[in-house]
Amino acid sequence: MVGCGRVGSELAMQLSEEGHSVVVIDKNREAFRRLTRFHGKTLIGSGFDRDVLFQADASHADALAAVTSGDNTNILCARIARDNYAIKNVVARIYDPQRADIYMKLGIPTVATSLWTTQQVKRWMLPSDESVEWTDGTGTLHLVERILPDRLAGRPISDFNLGVNVRVVGIVRAGQGRVNIEGLFAQEDDVLEFLVTATGATELATFLEGTP
């Protein structure tokens, strides 16, 4: 986690409490005071400093979130994490949503400040997360949000309607959400919104985790 502001600290504590090994990097020592329920490691410095990343054992990290207050810093951290350390799941916070398309073309998922929550960034860091966004009053219908596996890019969105228990109801692409998805084809880094039954949730998980 690069940046220990409100969202960075909340996410770091949440991941730490779930048993993940977490390292938080921030230039300001005082920022670590936000970590009131944290069992990981803290490092003072920059998220693109080689020595700091060495101390963070970045070469063995599964995910990195760059959540500082600067767009350029966040993108630089994310690119270094992906290109130099082969970290699979990276995400960068941006304040200028007009840059989202540019960064997406670089292969870096971004979340604009207006949409930035701990749950949003957690989805990019932990794509296998099975959290449910909403459940109807009867407890039988659930709205879930899932990141599209790269292997499914290029397929018609309609292919992801699985029988009677799974329906695609929306898509978030390059920071923009839409419900008019008829005729669309899936792209890398798409976030899909599904309406599922309890049975459908299992079917969807099996489908998304399946082999090519």
Top keywords for this entry?
globular, Rossmann fold, alpha/beta, 6 helices, five-stranded antiparallel beta sheet, 2 domains, Alpha-Beta Plaits, about 25% helix, 10 strands, about 210 residues, three-stranded parallel beta sheet
Explain this structure:
With 212 residues, the chain is of the alpha/beta class. The chain has 2 domains: 6-125, Rossmann fold; 134-208, Alpha-Beta Plaits (2-Layer Sandwich). Helices cover 26% and strands 22% of the residues. It has helices at 6-17, 50-55, 71-83, 100-105, 118-125, 198-208, and strands at residues 23-26, 41-44, 63-66, 89-94, 110-112, 134-135, 142-147, 166-173, 176-178, 191-196. The strands form 3 sheets. A 5-stranded antiparallel β-sheet has the order 6-7-10-8-9, with helices on one face. Strands 3-4-5 form a 3-stranded parallel β-sheet, sandwiched between helices. A two-stranded parallel sheet has the order 1-2. A hairpin with a 6-residue loop joins strand 6 (134-135) and strand 7 (142-147). Helix 1 packs across helix 5 (118-125). The radius of gyration is 18 Å and the shape is globular. It starts with 5 loop residues before the first helix and ends with a helix. The mean pLDDT is 85.
